[in-house]
Amino acid sequence: MHEMGIASSILEAVQQEVNRYPGHRAARVAVRIGQFAGVDSESLQFCFEAIIKDSPAAPLELAVERTAGDELDLGTLELEEIAA
Amino acid sequence: MTQVPLEKKVLSENDRVAALLRARLECAGALSLNFIGSPGSGKTAFLERTLQMLPDATRAAVLTGDLQTEADAKRLARYGYPVRQIVTVGACHLDARMIEKHLEGWNLNDLDFLFVENVGNLVCPTSYDLGEDAKVVVLSVTEGEEKPLKYPGIFRKAELMILTKVDLLPYVPFNLDLAIANALSINPDIEIIQTCSITGTGFGEWLRWLALRVDEKQSSIVVGSGTVQ
Q1: What is the ipTM of this complex?
Q2: What domains lie within chain A, and their CATH numbers?
Q3: CATH class of B25-217
Q4: How far apart are CA B148 and CA A26, in angstroms?
Q5: What are the DSSP E strand ranges found in A17-84?
Q6: CA dihedral for B15, B16, B21, B27, sign (positive or negative)
Q7: Record: contact A17-B10, CB cut-off 8 A
Q8: Which residues pair with B138 in a beta bridge?
Q9: Nearest CA in chain B to A23
Q10: Which chain B residues touch A if contact means CB-CB below 8 Å?
Q11: DSSP strand E in chain B: where?
Q12: Does the beta-carbon distance from A1 to B92 stay under 8 Å?
């Protein structure tokens, strides 16, 4: 139910980080979601695709890793150089 | 391809605001509790009875969240304590910014207790730190005893479970022992108080819990700040 808010928070964090790397764009971002985090990963994927679509951030892959605790953490961000 | 480790919480912005709130409440010696339960579990009735029974001179305030209407704030305002409604306009949970915004103009130094009634929902509010001292999960005997197993997130994070509407136990097929065992299987440290907001059953125990927690918090501040007495 609150996956749209979570998706927006992920995108904001990604955009903030990308701004520190001129000439780059985000290609893939990893998140770890614990089984007790109260976040449904399919629903999150759906929401993330919805907000990415038609945005300048597209294409951007969300890679979800399920974990055992109550984590809701950002992992590694993969950046690629923007072709000149 | 450049790899950048972000390694922070997805909700780190919420957590940042919550940490500021927690520090302000700490300085003020105000105990903040975040009440989370299903719609209809009896959160508002429980808080109404609490406000009614608080000892004279207790300094308390309430923030109450709902998707729409000021109905709960009107109910809670009848007891003479400051109350504000947070209308989330569809959002299924409160976040730390909403709390920060709705505390504006209140002097936290004038408070012993800040009660925050979250939006009725056992899932989403669990993820959002509101700067509280403890989450309190509210479960009524008209729900199922398997709720702790179905929604383990909140039962893991809550320090206290308030079981409401226990006066209805003779009339509903609710297995009290099983419900308690289920809650403890998810969180062995959770404290449980059985209450009825209509008759006042269990409120003596609840008010003692509140008094103990606020004493702990306020005495630690005196020690921490180096103030004599």
Answers
A1: 0.85
A2: 3-81 (3.30.2320.50)
A3: alpha beta
A4: 39
A5: 24-34, 61-67, 72-81
A6: positive
A7: no
A8: B37, B162
A9: B2
A10: 1-14, 91-93, 121, 123-124, 126-127, 152-154, 156-157
A11: 2-9, 31-37, 60-66, 83-87, 113-117, 134-140, 160-164, 191-194
A12: yes
Token pair 């109905």 in the structure block, residue:
B71
Structure tokens at B101: 């915004």
Q: 3-state DSSP call for residue B163?
A: strand
Does the distance separating the beta carbons of A2 and B6 come in below 8 Å?
A: no
Of A1, A9, A38, the CB nearest to B153: A38
Residue of B nearest to A13 (CA): B10
CA distance B146 to A71: 24
- What are the structure tokens assigned to B167, written together? 């006066």
pLDDT digits 0-9 by tens, B74-101 = 999 999 999 999 999 888 999 999 999 9
pTM attached to this predicted model = 0.89
The closest of B20, B16, B39, B36 to B28, measured between CA atoms, is B20
- B152 to chain A, closest Cα gap in Å: 7
Distance (Å) from the C-alpha of residue B61 to the closest C-alpha of chain A? 27
Task: Give the amino acid at B135.
Answer: K
